[in-house]
Amino acid sequence: MDRVVIGEAVELDVRTARLPSRALGIGLDILIMVALLVGVLLVIELAGAEVDDALTAAVGLAIVVGVFVGYPLLWETLTRGRSPGKYAMGLRVVRTDGGPIVFRHALARALAGFIVDFGLLSFFTGVIGIVVSASTARGQRIGDLLAGTIVVRERLPRTGLPGLPPPDPRLAAWAQRCELADLPDDLALAARQFLVRAAQLAPPMRDRLGGRLAADVAARVAPPPPPGTPPEAYLLAVLGERRRRETARLGGSPWAGAPAPSSGVAPATGSAPPSGPAPAPPSPWAGAAAGATPPSRWAPDAPSDASTPSSSPGKSSGFAPPG
Predict the structure, then answer these.
(1) Region Disordered: start and end of each range (predicted)?
(2) Looking at CB atoms within 10 Å, which of 67, 78, 118, 303 has the fewest?
(3) Mutual angle of helices 231-250 and 185-197, in 10-degree steps
């Protein structure tokens, strides 16, 4: 993942293309260009025009430059950064601020690719483009550095957690109302690694580690899970919802990850909002790591006697009789 700052000074997370996918896309484009070049040369040969050697060399050079420069220039200008090879690999060329490229960006990339990256200076081996792309943080070749562009992945991964079963539908519906902004990346990664390797752990260690991770996640996620939720099912639902929101956000949906509207009763009119941050609810798996019985967070509250006047002797009710 990489961060792109757009013109409105907003950071976006994008998935930049790396060397293997770019190499496959460029290889497909080169095959098409070579086939196009051979076809044009065959047409000229079959025409049978009698010209001298100098004119033949000039025409041949013009055809080579026209194919290897005009092909990417035409495709990337008309399709805003996509050639047939990039389309097959799910890639697109964009500006470093995330905007679409125009003619001048495509021209700089095409000329640098023909002269430096893959053509004349690299003896048509592409070694310069490969070395530069592997050395830069965003996988940019010289043409990208000169044009101010990057190549990003346009096909995003599917929602869900690869290698893991889908979460329970009821827990998935509950997770859509959760607040996940306080869940750090390292804790989410640790929970995912645990779920992937849970089947390889001994049962006592699996239960103890799952309870500990579920307690850490529950301390940063609200609202609390339904009563009786197993730790692994809870972690699977939270991580699945987190990945769904990230994927939807990368896809550009403005309503991605928005919590579902609450169906509860509206608060009474005139009630003052609580001041300060709300205290974190206790974890249902607290004490799981130590082997203690976790406290029930869904136990009914004890009846309050705040509204009952005290009748015990020695206690004042706060009422003063009139003089």
Answers:
(1) 246-323
(2) 303
(3) 120
At residue 104's C-alpha, the angle toward residues 100 and 109, to 5°, is 85
Question: What's the rounded Cα separation, in Å, for the pair 263 and 265?
Answer: 7
Place of tokens 């050395």: 135
Tell me how far apart the alpha carbons of residues 56 and 63 are, in angstroms, rounded to a whole number.
10
Return d(Cα 7, Cα 97) in angstroms, integer.
7
Return per-residue pLDDT of the chain as tens, 323 residues. 666 666 666 666 678 888 889 999 999 999 999 999 999 888 888 876 666 778 878 888 899 999 999 999 999 999 999 999 999 999 999 998 888 999 999 999 999 999 999 988 888 888 999 999 999 988 899 999 999 999 998 876 554 455 677 888 888 889 899 998 889 988 988 898 898 888 888 889 999 999 999 999 999 998 988 888 999 999 999 998 888 888 777 654 444 444 444 444 333 434 444 444 445 555 566 555 444 444 433 333 434 343 333 333 444 444 444 54
Residue 263: both structure tokens together: 């169906």
- 194: three-class secondary structure by DSSP: helix
Stated pTM of the model: 0.51
Cis ω on the peptide bond leading into residue 273 (within 30° of 0)?
A: no
